[in-house]
Amino acid sequence: MVFFLTILSSIPILYIFYIVLNFLDTKRHQHCYLLDYQLYKPSDNQKLSTEFSGEIIKRAKNLGLNEYKFLLKAIVSSGIGEETYAPKMVFEGREENPSHEDALEEMDELFEYTIERLLRRTGVSPSDIDVLVVNISMLACVPSLSGRIINKYKMREDVKTYNLCGMGCSASLISLNIIESVFKSKKNQVAMLVTSESLTPNWYVGNDKSMILSNCLFRTGGCAMILTNKPSLAHKCMLKLKCLVRTHHGAKDESYRCCIQTEDEYGRMGFHLGKSLPKAATRAFVENLKRVAPKILPIRELLRFGILSMIMKMVQSGQRKSAGLGFARPVINFKAGVDHFCLHTGGKAVIDAVAQSLSLSEYDVEPARMTLHRFGNTSASSVWYVLGYMEAKKRLKKGDKLFMISFGAGFKCNSCMWEVIRDLEGVENVWKECNIEDYPPQTLANPFLEKYGWIQDEDIETFKIPE
After folding, report:
1. Which residues are catalytic?
2. Pairwise CA distance, residues 131 & 182, whole Å
3. What are the backbone dihedrals phi and psi of residue 328, each rounded to the nearest 5 degrees, phi first?
4. 55-92 in b/e burial notation, b at 16+ Cβ within 10 A?
5. Phi/psi class of residue 409: alpha, beta or left (left: φ > 0; alpha: ψ in -120 to 50)?
6. How far, in Å, are 31, 32, 34, 185, 275 from residue 27 at the CA level?
7. In terms of DSSP bridges, do strands 401-408 and 340-343 run parallel, antiparallel, or are they unpaired?
8. Which of 221, 248, 256, 258 is the most exposed place for a label (fewest CB within 10 A)?
């Protein structure tokens, strides 16, 4: 009888113990790890040299004198070097009438280069993939690109697929958010994320200044990566996702229309970059930082900023000028909780603006500047090239915190924090093939400035315009 009562009394304790163990096991499987990633490096015959860039501009039939001047000045001040890559049809002189097959060929080359290398290096088989997310913003086809990958690599019938279009340059973090959500509901998952942009059908051939600017900034690139929530693979992984915050200002008309795919007055399709873009980007960036700061910064920094902000309000409420008393507006120090900043390479102005907002040093923004110079704006994959630069430079040590920031049409600002799980040495990194030891160069030469920097308003007419 005593034994029976003892067993009965222990049941609640065993049940509670079971619930705790189950909770801990569930939490353990909800982590999102980056196992490995592979950047895309097109062939050298797709490099846009200074001279060839000039030829592309000259052969554009729809450009007038002002458009030539605008394009040349834009490319001179872009921060892009002469080793970036463009689609094949540009080198074949077919940018005005690319075919659908050209666009698919561009994607197939990306898939073959990145996915096959990634699978070989990680030892993951296509049949191991449980979730596949593909984001190519400006190419929609039937079957989808995710379906194309499944067919090529003969993945399982029950693989869960997501094919994202129209998400812009911040699409890879949106894709990451989808995978993170799946991991929270299913154990022992392996996911593949493929991120890029299709430039072949989106090369603008008109003369609208707000639309020809995209030809100066966007370049061919891409990335494939494998993520998992398997605890058994955690020790092999590179990064662990700590948090992810998405901000969308699409409800504001000004933000929605500042980056938009549309037609010009002659019906030629292009990507419009409006004058309100800097303002929209700033609003989304500030809102995103407000939400992410409490998640990534130590309490001491949040308290410091809060106390200084309170003092500032008290001074202002007393109708006393802070300038006269030597007060400066308090600025939150993101470096208190972040070791590395992985910035979207939307352009030189974007990098400069973010650097100023976060009080970053040249060392902090060097990876973004070098990525812009070497690979250009590769849309949603750009932050992964920045990560690759840091890895190749052996900056990433175990325990470091890495903050990713991306912007995109909508208008969106997305950010996330990663923790480095092990020291990263940049094995088989495309940056190593670019002679990473030469970066950053002592003098960051601007070949476009040397070639076209002489062009001014009064002497633009001396530039040879095609008949």
Report:
1. 169, 248, 340, 344, 373, 377
2. 8
3. -120, 150
4. ebbeebeebeeebbbbbbbbbbbbbbbbbbbbbbbbee
5. beta
6. 7, 11, 17, 10, 46
7. parallel
8. 256
Q: Report yes or no: 56 and 452 within 8 Å, Cβ to Cβ.
A: no
Structure tokens at 161: 């697929």
Task: Give the separation between CA 460 and CA 452, rounded to whole angstroms.
Answer: 10
Residue 210 to residue 95: CA distance in whole angstroms: 18
pLDDT tens for each residue of the chain, 467 residues long: 666 666 656 666 654 544 544 444 555 567 999 999 999 999 999 998 877 877 777 777 777 767 777 777 777 777 788 889 999 998 888 888 889 999 999 999 999 999 999 999 999 999 999 999 999 999 989 999 999 999 999 999 999 999 999 898 999 999 999 999 999 999 999 999 999 999 999 888 888 888 888 888 899 999 999 999 999 999 999 999 999 999 999 999 999 998 888 888 888 888 888 888 888 999 999 999 999 999 999 999 888 888 887 887 777 666 555 444 555 677 888 999 999 999 999 888 889 999 999 999 999 999 999 999 999 999 999 999 999 999 999 999 999 999 999 999 989 999 999 999 998 887 778 998 888 888 888 666 666 666 655 555 444 444 443 33
* Spatial CA neighbour of 35 closest among 110, 122, 120: 122
CB 449 within 8 A of CB 76: yes
Handedness of CA 381, 382, 386, 392 (dihedral sign): positive
pTM of the entire predicted model = 0.88
